[in-house]
Amino acid sequence: MIRLVGKERSAPVRSFFLVASLRVRSFKIRSGSAPIRGELLSGRFAPQIMPIAYLTLEIRIEAAHSLKDKRQVVRSLKDRLRNSFNIAIAEIDVTDLWQRATLGVVSISGSRDYLEGLMRNVEQAATRQANNLGAEVVDSFMDFVEPGESTEANGA
Question: What is the pTM (predicted TM-score) of this model?
Answer without folding.
Answer: 0.66
